[in-house]
Amino acid sequence: MTDDLPNPALLPAGLADLLPPDAEREADLVEAMMVVFAGHGYERLKPPLLEFEDSLLAGSGAAVAEQTFRLMDPVSQRMMGLRADTTPQVARIAATRLSGQARPLRLCYAGQVLRVRGTQLAPSRQLPQAGVELIGGAAPAADAEVAVVAIEALAVVGVTAVSLDVTLPTMVPALMEAAGAGPALRSGLAHALDRKDSAAVAALVQRQPGPLAVLPELMASTGPADGALAALDAADLPPAARAIAQNAASVLLAIQARAPGLRITLDPVEFRGFRYHTGVAFTIYGPGMSGELARGGRYLSQNDEPATGMTLYPDAVMRAAPGSAPRPRLFLPIGADGAPFRARGFATVAALATEDTPQRLRCTHELKGGEAVPILPKD
Amino acid sequence: MTDDLPNPALLPAGLADLLPPDAEREADLVEAMMVVFAGHGYERLKPPLLEFEDSLLAGSGAAVAEQTFRLMDPVSQRMMGLRADTTPQVARIAATRLSGQARPLRLCYAGQVLRVRGTQLAPSRQLPQAGVELIGGAAPAADAEVAVVAIEALAVVGVTAVSLDVTLPTMVPALMEAAGAGPALRSGLAHALDRKDSAAVAALVQRQPGPLAVLPELMASTGPADGALAALDAADLPPAARAIAQNAASVLLAIQARAPGLRITLDPVEFRGFRYHTGVAFTIYGPGMSGELARGGRYLSQNDEPATGMTLYPDAVMRAAPGSAPRPRLFLPIGADGAPFRARGFATVAALATEDTPQRLRCTHELKGGEAVPILPKD
Description:
The structure is a homodimer. By secondary structure, chain A is an alpha+beta fold. The first copy, chain A, has twelve helices and 16 strands. Chain A has a nine-stranded mixed sheet with strand order 1-5-6-12-11-10-7-9-8, sandwiched between helices. Chain A has a four-stranded mixed sheet with strand order 14-13-15-16. Chain A has a three-stranded antiparallel sheet with strand order 2-4-3.
């Protein structure tokens, strides 16, 4: 029911009402995913929606600074921001209130974020998020864990047949650095890689080969993880790039061990759109055309603590998840007791006045001889 | 853990982080209460946190206009407000997107509201709310239903022994109107009633008796519902006040029939702090000193539709609710499978590196011979 009769004057662009039954479904999905996170030892936080902009926009928050609504706090006369992402808040809490707790910290959250502007592809300006952060652990097993926990959370709400796309956002910068590439070559390569223009990449690389010479073959290796890992293994990489490749191999092996059937792709040369990632980065795509369900990866939390995490997008998850049967609605005549039927999963809808009929109250069942009986549609 | 080491510079006054285990507990309480609402046929909505201020501050929203954060929408160049209450949003949806649905509508919601300033008694500027609205039904049974549903939601999360305080905010205005009281007498009486100063009320009433003459006896009748109802029944009331009293009696009888043991008090002359109520108003107090857990009552929704509702305050409910046992944490050595233990309610906390010990990961259990065994504290 979210699509009928939108009145453009009623709500600002990109802000919407979630109506029945979607609002209940989204909340149920989120809480089911949070149960999975809790099951893996991720403890829930609830940071406020508003905080001082200097803490909100620190660290990884800088990536969403332009997208953050700002407003003046009349109490402190300081500027506050409405959060556009939750990860910076978790980083703040880890570095302050939880600074004394042994690492790694496993934390999770669910809530709304707000953005100043939507994009053409993602017009919403209020987005639900549910995520996990593992802070203070550098092991490849940590990256694997957050990816596998996110996949498990999606499976619990019925979203299977997903694919995990892995990128190494530090690989191309490491190769450029080793090659001593200048600004013009760097931006030319970035542009060509972004367009996935292999001819342009090959032409640019020829101007300054050495460590960059592997780029065309790495680009061509993008695809199922095993093939891409083999190409990385065979490639002639400088030490920093070799370390990135070995780390990626460890992460992917750990994921495959824990999620054997999972479809994994690896793109070793993709590096845009992961602005604050410092290691392996993940995107989870749903089956068919259902789009991005989650993103995450390794980053530096406050005080340069190594961290990794995943953010799931419950609005996208809901579009990918199978529909659930609506709750049956039992009409309760005036004075009838609905408690036994609620205990069996019915919504009991009480008549409050004589004009309240089962049809008006959109009931699916009525009481007959003390039993809940389906109401058959009239001819 | 919400009280240790607050750094006043870190977060704006009245905005706080909810830490483990409180954040999970609050979310669990809210969802458990939402299940009760759904069981009574209340369908969940999720309005956006931000909307145009003219719709947000319409109707009952006017009561929180001064408490609403305002910000400019760069897309539309119109002013938006961050919601300070959810009821006006539900009213908007009922009057627009759900205008074609038969009445009464039963709707529910859970989410955050934000306020520009806290008060001395309630310093928080971000408050969780969970509530029900019954729109398009004028029957006393509707008022009784929202009160009883709220009481049941509290009971489900372990908050029993509550008291329901009922007020009739239209009673004193109806008596003043019938008496033709002028502005000076009205404000004098309001002030005296607000201070519960029976001598001052008696003195003021003597200046213009008639319909106001009942005020001292109504004031004295405040207390357990049965006694107060009897006093109302015996009082000499003008017709409008008599209708209010009869409606109150119907509502209270319906509540008593559905919640026989409930402690109910009635204050027929309290009328401040219920600025938009047009009939019976409710406050639910927790046991002991735990304060207000919920408020609600009858009001006019958009297009003057009769409506009634209750808003529960999950932060207060959490303070009043019994603590729950923390989730046991099972240490998982590298490579061990935690799934069977998660299915039994454990959080399984995986070692990711050799320095990850059960103690560091704050585990309560470890694996011995394939079983989860409590870790005994060392001497």
